Amino acid sequence: MKDKYVGLDVHQSSTMAAVHDEKGKAVMESLLKTEAEAIRDFVKGLSGTIHVTFEEGTQAGWLYEIVKPLVAEMVVCNPRANKLLAVGNKGDRVDAHKLAELLRGGQLKSVYHGGSSSRQLKELVHNYDSLVSDTTRVMNRIKAIYRGRAIRCAGRDVYYTRHRAEWLEKLREAGVRRRAEFLYQELDTLRGLRREAKQAMLKESRRHAAYPTLKQIPVLGPIRIAEILAKVVSPHRFRTKRQFWAYCGFGVVTRSSADYEFVEGRAQKRQRAPMTRGLNPNFNRRLKYVFKSAAVDGLRQEPFQSYYLRRVAVGMRPEMARLTLARKIAALTLTLWKKGEGFNELKVSEPVA
Questions:
Q1: Considering 123, 276, 302, 353, which has the largest number of Cβ atoms within 10 A of its Cβ?
Q2: Which domain holds residue 80?
Q3: What DSSP assignment string belongs to 16-42?
Q4: pLDDT higher than threshold 90 for residue 271
């Protein structure tokens, strides 16, 4: 059977589809409505072995569930890695054909989609994160009102209901006071929703088979575990801890050039070390925050405190020691999750690299 490579350029109301054969020849293109039935009918109408790709975006999860059962290969590609799409003319038709050709050549970097069993946890975690952000935004606006009038408001006392009348009395202007009252009402509503969202998220995360395993790690509380379960889904996505570090934003970027030279007619590698360029910029921001905050908590409790102090004692800069500790916690999380083992404090003292 002949292979066909389909590139989909997906938008809110329309989707441009381009089909290439195994030799790279464009054999079909079609403008579709971005609707489940229209896309299913198009894919079902193709003969041969079908390979489909489209870029990660707003509709990616929805479209993946629709198309995946109908094709031999599905690649949801990372738009940041598709440099060819930025070259030359750009348009729906051009982009669809470029995606099909990149898929045929195996040049696309895929984004993980899968684990439908964790879909509910993903949605609940996303809901909780959004409510936390909204709550923080309202709290900042309340403090901005007082700071803008040179009223000291350090700490959290300004948010408490029992002291609210006292704080409102400090605002002399009627319009400003009324605005603050609305913000306080919004804060109260968001706090109630946030509590409900937290309870729903934690209840769902405790159903996960890996929850008891990750709970053994001292610095991982229920919220952090829920975040990890929702974002990682499966630890077997990562063959080694280094791949997991890169996903969490802990991978070191290196640069080198002219790695080999000829000496007496024989090629040998240069001895100079590659230059480092900091940590990788493409990562999951929520996971980086989870493991960095876990490392900060680990500075104050064993066995992670001793691990950190040993690194500082041998001359490692404190910020690098904290990064190393975050890597250690991430590596332990991945290992325990994969193997289902119990937490062993002796493993914390083992080298992280």
A1: 123
A2: 3-104
A3: EEEEEETTS-EEEEEEEESSHHHHHHH
A4: no
